[in-house]
Write a structure and sequence with these properties.
The protein has helices at about 10-65, 135-155, 175-190, 195-205, 215-225, 230-235, 240-250, 270-285, and strands spanning about 70, 85, 100, 125-130, 160-165, 260, 265. It is of the alpha+beta class. Strand 6 and strand 7 form a beta hairpin.
Amino acid sequence: MAPAPPRKPTKAERAAAGRERERLAREEQQRKDRRNGLLAKWGVVVAALVVVAVIALVVVDTMRGRVPDAGPAPQGGNAQGGITLLSSTDTAPTGTDRVDVATLPGEPAAEGTVPEGITSVTNGPLQVVAYVDINCVHCADFEARHSEQILSWLDAGEITFEYRTVAYLDRNSSTEYSSRAANAVACVADSAPETYFDVNQRLFAHFEQGELDDDGLVALAAEAGAGDISSCVEDGTFRPWVKYTTEAAQAAAVGGTPTVYVNGEVVPNAVEDLGTAVQAQLAARG
């Protein structure tokens, strides 16, 4: 038996099907319109964020450009941009009164070159030199791990400890926190050197809580017994010093922070191995 021919839809059914197609088409167009609207809104947001980022970079670069190349060195500041602790409360005197970026080498040293002022000491305390950035997470880890031991070595007369505090990570901060914090510790070294080590420890301990504004830096120093450093912080008295220290480190091919030398030898993983390196040097002396 031959199959029956398919039933043709009635006029009413055809009209209903047409209306359904139109409804589906409208819904699809509405979905497209919503997607396009969201994309347009996100495009505006992204564009605004890009503009803000560009403005921030321009502002930071402009601020950097305003820092003079030459300026005063803090009490205890040396020609390499460092400040050396002889004990937890005493810094080494130096004859450096001013620094000038123009006196630094024009080309960076070869990689692996030991920076100036770092040497092997055969008699007396071991020399430990640390390039640090106060906005550096690994520097904060280094300090958290070793500060008590450093304090013990210092007060036992077994080491001297020199901070060369750089501002490598200003590029990560819209407020130039590395430079501002480095200026603050230089202010402390100049006016209250007996609190210099303590203020450094407090700043690194604060890392997890984020950047401090200038008032916060002043308050932290006061809590450590450094007195009022507000005018020094607000005026950026030692910003040229920070600039000099940073560019001296770059000229010495110091690639990152913390970079630590013990008696003239770099410690490859100072965060983990500072104690081992110092104890090995002390043991070698007998």
